[in-house]
Amino acid sequence: MDARVSEFFASGNGQCSGHQSVASNAKAASGFGIVPKKLGAKNKKTKTRFTRNFKPSSNTPYLPPEAEEGNIEYKLKLVNPTQYRFEHLATQMKWRLQEGRGEAVYQIGVEDNGMLVGLSEEDMRASLKTLHRLAEKIGADIAVLREQEVNYDSEDLRKIVEVLIRKVPDDQQFLDLRVAVLGNVDSGKSTLLGVLTQGELDNGRGRARLNLFRHLHEIQTGRTSSISFEILGFNSQGEVVNYSESRTAEEICETASKMITFIDLAGHHKYLKTTIFGLTSYCPDFAMLVVSANTGIAGTTREHLGLAMALKVPIFIVISKVDLCTRATVERTVRQLERVLKQPGCNKVPMVVSSKNDAVMGAQQFVQSPNITPIFTLSSVSGDSLDLLKVFFNILPPLSNSKEQEELMQQLIEFQVDEIYSVPEVGTVVGGTLYSGICREGDHLVVGPTDLGHFHKLTVGSIQRNRSGCRVLKAGQAATLALGNFDRSLLRKGMVMVSPEMDPAICWMFEAEIVLLFHAKTFHKGFQVTVHIGNVRQTATVEAVYGKAELRTGEKAIVLFKFIKHPEYLKMGAKVLFRQGVTKGIGHITKLQPIAQYELSQRETDEA
């Protein structure tokens, strides 16, 4: 991580780097992400087939060449394929759906090398009919995302059509993405989520957010202090499925083929530890930074942006409350954000979304390029541009591909314990994320570590995802597990439930290579900080700073930490984030000292 990211944790706006906003470029390219041939990636050798009466010229626009992997497929035309060709196309569609974990995008009228040839009205109608037959054969649904006319050096009107194909995998209930919601206090985070998930606009006084609050003091103050979860579904046709029309969570899960789970985090600075825990523990796929149009970048906004970047969570921005401001004020906030995003420690390319085309292209480029940062301007009261955000969520593909998912599923079970409940007539229930493996009802696992570094045996009862029952839990999915009459006092946040065959590394001490993002004075041996590693949150003491007597802001070093309360389950390479007052730093674990090794060194020290 670039040490210059420390600018987001200290004061000052920094200087603007020389990147250009891609919003205007996107519009100039007719909203299809078109690149000139010379600027595109190297073309793979493909036999270019041209439709009748079409001849490429020097100004023919191009998309990037089709990739062998991924969920995007280019097709020039699909007119009356033979039976053998039809079967081959069906197999190809299954492959693209598998790559996109249930979603694929087809560009019709595009050559494999990315050339936008286009099709006549008749050929396009026949191609879409074939695509419908293919989708029907494999049990998928299709929805046209956008159409684009291409008319260059020719009198014939030609079209390019982009189609979304969605099929929930047979062994899965729905596609699931997790989005962490960040932003300063009073920026409208909870209100926006209330409008999206309840289906009703806000009254301007925060009515929409009331259903999201978990505590009385949150309702009284209007400020989120805990982590809450809300769901927004999309059916196979891309239509929104939420709590409107008196739907229950179970009905949403049954109807939806894609689910967005929002993790609503606290904006106030005194709840920062809760916000960091939500970002590190719940493994969000994306982060949504909400900025109020009338206040701009204020309070914890810059800090939240820095946290998301430090943890390498892709981030997009929503500017809310545009109904309270003049157009000039909104534009000033957009320019302010663009300046921050272009800073050397950030190096993002802002993309202002102002149309459906921008939203579709933004969703696709956002995942493909980590530097693209879509910016939405909307209102939760008037509903301005809310539809663009919904289109974005509908198109947004998963980050990990099917191959990475399968590799994690083949490993032993590791479930991170983030929440602990006692439910009447059910018993002890734990909530968290399955990091690896496949967990089923009735599985025998062990949970720990205890204060002495031991593990207790337990049996998984029932499993629920998004408040509806499921029998199988797969790597990367969040759920709650019922543990029956297991003693709740033996559990705490930060524990893990693992397969009995696993030999987990339980540590009191660990070494990490860190960057000190911000510190008022110097960082040295004996300093105490709160350490966040995944779902682990505990105070640790700096036992040694190797190679240096002390650290200052922006400096790197390998540091030895020691937990002060109980040992924890850690893994090599895990991201480390620590804080104490204004002191903040990030890094990764480079060496573990398991309990046996630690106890041996302690005995040797005592004997000496």
Topology of this structure?
Blueprint: H1 23-28, E1 72-75, H2 83-99, E2 103-108, H3 121-138, E3 141-150, E4 158-166, E5 175-183, H4 189-198, H5 216-221, E6 228-234, E7 240-241, H6 249-255, E8 258-264, H7 272-281, E9 286-292, H8 301-310, E10 315-320, H9 327-341, E11 349-352, H10 356-368, E12 372-377, H11 386-395, H12 402-409, E13 414-423, E14 427-436, E15 438-440, E16 444-448, E17 456-459, E18 463-465, E19 468-470, E20 472-474, E21 478-482, E22 496-498, E23 506-518, E24 523-524, E25 528-533, E26 536-546, E27 550-551, E28 556-563, E29 568-569, E30 575-580, E31 583-594, H13 595-607
Parallel strand pairs: 1-2, 5-8, 5-9, 9-10, 10-12, 11-12
Antiparallel strand pairs: 2-4, 3-4, 6-7, 6-8, 13-14, 13-22, 14-21, 15-20, 16-17, 16-22, 18-19, 18-21, 23-28, 23-29, 23-31, 24-27, 25-26, 25-30, 26-28, 30-31
